Please model this.
Amino acid sequence: GDGDITRALFGEIMMSVAQVKGAVGAVFDGAIRDVNSFEEKNFPCWARGVNLRGPYKDGPGAINVPVSIGGLVIYPGDIVLGDSDGIVAFSPKVALEVAKLGQQKLAHETATLKAIYAGTYDDSWIDEALAKKS
Model:
């Protein structure tokens, strides 16, 4: 997609083909269409935009090559995880380390939120950071 959103790269038909072949989601550096069908068929998809104009039938592209999407380079075989905030990609070789780091981050943020709501969170760093910028 190269960030181009003037035509959709993917829609319900291609999503259905991909899903039947075992795909469980998709990421595009371009536009998609038929957005409601992605939710209806429980097929998560991340894209730069939406456009009702259909894809070229024989446009540029390659398979099993590294791609860059918004500055994130994804290599063939990488694990790609996503949620409503975006996506991350990493080599299976570091999957256990990434999982541990994710658990640590979640524990830290959970404790921080608990402290905020308990009124015990020290937010003095915010005032210090703002003072340095004035």
